[in-house]
Amino acid sequence: MRAPIGTFDHVLAAPEALDLLTRPVADAVRDWRGTVPAQDLIHVDTDPEWADTATFVEHYGPDLLDTSANCVVVAGKRGGETTLAACVVLSATKLDVNGAVRRQLGARKASFAPMDTATGESGMEYGGITPIGLPADWPVLVDAAVVDLPHVLIGSGTRRGKLIVPGKALSELPGAVVVEGLGVTV
User: Fold this and answer.
1) Which of helix, strand or coil describes residue 23?
2) Which residues does the chain have with pLDDT short of 70?
């Protein structure tokens, strides 16, 4: 099997790579629903040393910058209540936390969630958090530019490995809301 984007040595359909995923991601792949078949979710093995975007594209190819997305966990606060949300934006953009995210969550204040909160609540590793398999009550805000991609490279729940999925699959995740301008050009 070949990956639809990038050049990777080890490529598997995600349902065949469940043992390489964290439990919440593996459960989500196992119970996959939507118009995109689970077999179209692809796992590629990558070195955890290069999981961060800048080093990843330096090692695996600069063309991946245009087809990769980051999943950022944000905490929105209003009236003493905190809402955790996942925000998915193209890697070449910056998340508009104080504008688009704050408005979408109806929060008075929004900020990046602390690493311990993001990893502890998601059940995923820092540097590998993915929108697939997040808690059902989390809003998943997905930039429209990500949804428009034929294939997008995202985290797999661990620092080792990535998932390549059709962009539209992310719009069908539980709690997903497509937001124009969620990511802004830097």
Assistant:
1) helix
2) none
- Give the bridge partners for 72, in sequence order: 87
Concatenated DSSP letters for 47-114? -GGG-SHHHHHHHH-GGGGGGBEEEEEEEEEETTEEEEEEEEEETTEEE-IIIIIHHHHT-SEEEEPP
How many structural domains compose the chain? Answer: 1
Strand order through the sheet with 109-112 = 109-112, 69-78, 81-90, 140-143, 176-179
Beta strand 176-179 pairing with 140-143 = parallel
Q: Is residue 4 part of a domain?
A: no
In a domain, 3, yes or no: no
Give the domain range for residue 98.
Answer: 11-185
Instruction: Find the CATH number of the domain harbouring 167.
Output: 3.90.960.10
Q: What is the pLDDT of residues 41-70, one digit of tens each?
A: 999 999 888 877 788 888 888 888 899 999
* 48 domain residue, yes or no: yes
Q: Is residue 1 assigned to a domain? A: no
